[in-house]
């Protein structure tokens, strides 16, 4: 378990952050550049010291300002993965991994070398030097080196920020498996909503140095009052579902959600896999009556729960579709012409082709 409740003044910038995470899982700090994400993770790592408060890892205080406790970073048993990997160029992949192991006495090591090599799929890379690795391969090795210190907590500061989308897709599944395979909590910093959707168990929204909201991904991303933090320009709702079938003839996957079945482009996930799906408001159209003769096959009956003014000519219409949230961004003219108002029943239409692969994540 990780508990953070700290304050720190950096010039004119004030950090006030508090949250508590489970014993294993990924806690994500999300916010724009300058919101205080890296400042918080650096206090946890021991790179900077808070002015007040506590930081506890598995019930052990590593910082307690009122009690005069500030453990140096080498005594905190923390692994740190940076944006650029920071591998030793003169060492092979195996040499980098063994360096990580060497930072922890043999009697205190809890994560086996072979288990890390197999999980990260890097056995064929062991004799290579970093210059011969792709960006995704370097990050997998950096993760392995951090894991082999047998840390009580793993910190990851935007580890995928320097990678292109293909390399991100290569590394994300490995990160998602870490908490389950090694029973380790991870504090993960990102400004990518796709990474949040596919990785996070707990979400901490940062705003101007403060932890503005803490909760599950589904709860926070579905709250209208947090829209300015979770995606003012790309609002949407998150649905929970399960992969129930693959339609190979049409290269589609069928998900079952509380709103009803959802057809999306073919997913590389087994039937029975629990997922969450982010459906953007701009990809949801509304009809006053049940539509017929459409190419859109994802149609849901819902009740309008609220209307929220957006920028320009738009209104965000929040729906309750059999207990599942949905959001549609329409024009004020459409609101007037369709008679859209709170409490009215309408039909929401979602084009399956609008659900990008990054919008579907395996539920932790």
Automatic annotation (TrEMBL):
Entry protein name: Molybdate transport system ATP-binding protein
Stored SMART domains: AAA
Sorted UniProt keywords: ATP-binding, Cell inner membrane, Cell membrane, Membrane, Molybdenum, Nucleotide-binding, Translocase, Transport
Record GO terms (molecular function): ABC-type transporter activity; ATP binding; ATP hydrolysis activity; molybdate ion transmembrane transporter activity
Domain ABC transporter: 1-233
Domain Mop, residue spans: 293-359
GO cellular component: membrane
A UniProt-annotated Pfam family: TOBE
Entries under InterPro entries matching the protein: AAA+_ATPase, ABC_transporter-like_ATP-bd, ABC_transporter-like_CS, Mo/tungstate-bd_C_term_dom, ModC_ABC_ATP-bd, Molybdenum_import_ModC, Mop_domain, P-loop_NTPase
